[in-house]
Amino acid sequence: MRLFTLLIILLPFSTAAQTLLIGTYTKSIHVCRFDPETGAITKVSSNDELNNPSFLTVSANGQYVYAVGEASGANGGSVYALKFDGNRLELMNSQSSGGKGPCHINIDKAGRNVIVANYANGSVSVLPIQPDGSLGAPIQTIQHTGSSIVESRQKGPHAHSVNFSPDQKQVFVADLGIDKIMVYDYHPGNKKTPLTPAAIPFITTQPGMGPRHFTFHPNGKWAYVVGELNGNVTVYNYKNKTLLPVQTVSTAPGAKPQFGLADVHVTPDGNFLYVSDRIKQNYLASFKINKSNGELSFIAHEPTLGENPRNFMIDPSGKYVLVANQSTNNVVVFKRDPASDKLTPTGNQINVERPVCLQLVPVK
Hints:
The protein is 0% helix and 53% strand. It is mainly beta. The chain has one domain (7-362): 7 Propeller (Methylamine Dehydrogenase, Chain H), CATH 2.130.10.10.
């Protein structure tokens, strides 16, 4: 049985109050206010007519929210389009995700398409965004194939996340089941095959790594991939549309715990990186980033004050880290020291049933 995921994504920063959207493994997406001066969270409203809206992405103008409906039954998964007025979410329509168990979604900056990773059957689908912000049916679905060495989790492909290159010309899909990062060239104007295999169509990770989430450094030159299954982070150089591995480090040096890495983020200043581990550890592992080559040096483990930290976010100012603990039903706010990277609990949190995705949107 697959281990679920959550995600936190940020839109442009403002010192004014911002809207925090919380996706869940229930019927609801919650709308909350986040105060970047104090770190306080207050609830505003909820949309309660969905099915496991576990991963969210937001249009560049903040007016539309797209969410996967994570289901793996006979009818497969769904993708929802919601109109957002800053206070409430209104369901516009839903479409098939083109597969089963969709667990991740991303939108291109131009707002032409959303791309979905279907975990259960290991496929990736492209859905066009209509002029009114609603979604069309999938125009392309690509089925991954293969397996890897961890029999309990890698008998077949399990696409786990979708990421755009900094210039939006490539798409990277981390596939946990086959230990590969699939690489596609992206042609947003093509209405039939917007994704085509890149000249180097995939990057093979360590056997048994289980690549899950992926992020670029703010400088666009380095990328970081977390291995859900082996507890490692791999650093890549990104140049000429090619990822070249330069370092692999453990999130628990000298130890061999049961790993369950989930999410990865770089601080806005590009100096530090965090990785969440949610199985038994319930911590964020922090690393110092070498400014000359992007390589990592382990710093510490920071407890998340809850269980199952599936995802987390660093706010755009770098002052706060928010962590969604799925099993303890709480989103916890930490104050961050930008010099030492030390996290200190603020005492601010909100209780939400099974939180699995967070996004910040500036208040209109």
